[in-house]
């Protein structure tokens, strides 16, 4: 049985405490009214020494026109800065939840494939997926707060946006209101989260029951359940990506987006499995996990990283080459305002894994795998950052207290929940039909 060390437990508590303090600070320092934004702009103008040049168009504008433009700029900046702590919280929350979902999908695939190499890792996968109920509840609350207008990170939820004659009316969003409306949107979220969590609960229950069984009844139940779950997962994952990520830019769409999001959190889930496994191995647990198991996990990390890059390039290249204004604006915004995180994600999620994990020997060396895993996880957090922030905070982004604190809080919570779950049951499934093959897996 695994014992959750006091040192790791204390680290998780410290991360959660620092995270909560930082999140609170982020909300406290967000502007409360337009006057604070005016003060901030005046301060920035003072530090820049009024060195901005005036364009020829601005020279011919009347003072009334310039005043209107200034007021619009102040109001936009106000909303963006108010969105910043909410967006930082949202990115970290959905990232850690989907990392868990990626691990759950990988576990289901192993069940359906009747893989002989992976059963010794099932308890690690189940431990990671223990975070899914906790992450789902927090995430659902965030969605409810958006729907009740506590925040305004989803523009299509703004009041009057689908009402003709309203100052906020948007014809394109109104045309999508049959799908993008709060009641239908939150209902879909509830169904998806409930479905994923039910599979996690019953598959784990059957797996534990199989340990005490005299036949393979519970294993067969898990096989059928996993096959049904993967069908549900494929459909729900695509719709989820539209609802929770693509709808931040409600005028834009991509038919590749569901696959793109899947590749991002799927490789993150596999990477997390690998890193938790290596941690447990370093503490003397998982004695039947050998270098061949680690090598296989590393191959998945490498392969799905390449798959993510294929989807990233396909989505970007086709839209950029077609140059249709309502489509290309998505990438234009990110290249102009988010140049470093946009292309930095490609370096972290493709260039680095290619250079490190393409070597067969490196796929078995723990420090190299951990280093590559840290970069991959950071890179995919940045990937989710790029999906959310341009639409919610625009040019007011930076990695500050809110972003770091949100990562700290959810990382601490993730560590606490996952490693607590690992203490509940033995780390080796006893009666899985393929357990002996898995224990002696070598190549």
Structure keywords:
16 helices; mainly alpha; 0% strand; 443 residues
Task: Tell me what the structure shows.
The chain has helices at residues 6-29, 34-48, 56-59, 63-113, 122-129, 131-147, 171-175, 182-212, 217-244, 257-282, 291-322, 325-337, 339-357, 366-392, 401-422, 435-439. The protein has 443 residues and is an all-alpha fold. The longest helix has 51 residues, at 63-113. Helices cover 74% and strands 0% of the residues.
N→C terminal distance: 28 Å
Cα-atom radius of gyration:
24 Å
Number of beta strands: 0
Q: What is the tally of helical segments?
A: 16
Topology:
Elements: H1 6-29, H2 34-48, H3 56-59, H4 63-113, H5 122-129, H6 131-147, H7 171-175, H8 182-212, H9 217-244, H10 257-282, H11 291-322, H12 325-337, H13 339-357, H14 366-392, H15 401-422, H16 435-439
Helix pairs in contact: 1-15, 2-4, 4-5, 4-6, 4-9, 4-10, 4-14, 4-15, 5-15, 6-8, 8-9, 9-10, 10-11, 10-14, 11-13, 11-14, 12-13, 13-14
Short overview:
The protein is mainly alpha-helical and about 450 residues long.
